[in-house]
Amino acid sequence: MEIFGVVNASPDSLADFSVATTREDAKALGQQLLDDGANHLDLGGQASHGDAAMVTPDEEWAILEGPLLGLLELGVTVSVDTWQVETARRAFDAGASVLNAADALQDEEMLRFAAERECPVVLPFMLGPDPRHLKHVEGDPVEVMVSWFGERLVEMERFGLRDRCYLDPGTGFAPAHWEWSERYEYQKLIYSGLDQLRRFELPIYVPVPWKQTDDRMELLDIVLQHDIDFARAHLPGQVREREALAQRG
What we know:
This protein has about 250 residues and is an alpha/beta fold. It is about 40% helix and about 15% strand. It has one domain (about 1-245): TIM Barrel. It is built from eight helices and eight strands, in the order βαβαβαβαβαβαβαβα. β4 (about 100), α4 (about 110-115) and β5 (about 120-125) form a beta-alpha-beta unit.
């Protein structure tokens, strides 16, 4: 399993320890994440929770530019987490090489950008066009997720993107102000059904919990039992520790 360590340039991020707003701070945090077990780095400039402020592409790039340049100095793969195509374009021109498509490529302009750059794409399961305003899943969430990916991957194939997709179950997103007890049950069902995504024969990429509570560690352990290809982690050292415990049974 390879890990994308999380660096947030947005001050709206709920994980304040992951926030770095300058080139120097981002480089230092990125190096710490790599030392703790990350292989790559993921950078975002727009938080996706329901209370996050919306920023324009120019504002987002002003937030991202310095931290991105700092991470690139570390000589590792850097993904940019955005749903705005102009932000993605500027980030790739600067050296980012993986698109963490926070809108699930539901904007055709972003689809065309990804096809043009021939880049790997993190494709998250998402009901609704805006990650801050999602619909609740009705019925069996694993069944809905699998059906959704089946439909989206047909569209990815049309743009020559299917084989470059990493499948993300979308657990980093949720309807705004969802009670944790409901979100926990939802995530447990989704994580327990991750093997259902193997039918698509594409890498599985999972944003894993960072809060250190027993229920969240239970969710992390369920993810690790499925031998995923990529994790997106705020605390890669914690993930590596649980991974080692899982491998020892």
